[in-house]
User: Fold this.
Amino acid sequence: MNKRSIRLVFDMILAIAISVSVHQLFEFIFNGFTNLHFSLVLVPLIWLALRYGASTAVLAAAMTGLINGLIDFHFSEWVNIILYEILPLLSSGLAGLFAKYTQKTLNNRRLKSTYLNISTASILVTLAYFALKFLIVPMGTGNLTELSISKLEFWASFALMAVAAAVLLCTAAKAMPRWIIPARTKYLTRKETSSLLND
Assistant:
């Protein structure tokens, strides 16, 4: 494996570990305490998508969902694990659509455009996650949803998660561009990459 592949695998493992830890922590803290569904589980996966693209994020999301599902559900409940844990997290791959222009604008120090790309990605991913987890999957399985789309809690939870993801990732992009743009990224030319590394 070359350095880029090693770094990609390391970042995947890091994103999965953080996502699983955050999910379990928020489940422990907020379970039964509030009707809001708030977790930062999507943030590391969106970061991975913006850094490496959709396919990497989708793979990491599937593994994250599997681990969370095995912890939250019984080992025999594979349908629930796939539908309620894995499938919603796959929405993080949508952020990969913004990877190229997020990295290009950040490399060119067009921070307003970078923030717009990151914020749009965060909103789109969070909306897809909520739609799958609390609307589409429950309707498809005939089960009651934890959060009804007609309730204020649904939209408050969505807004909190989307804003939190956008703020954290925009802050990371401004503070340390290398956290968003990896060395030898496929989204920048060699000249652009060397310019970034020499800063």
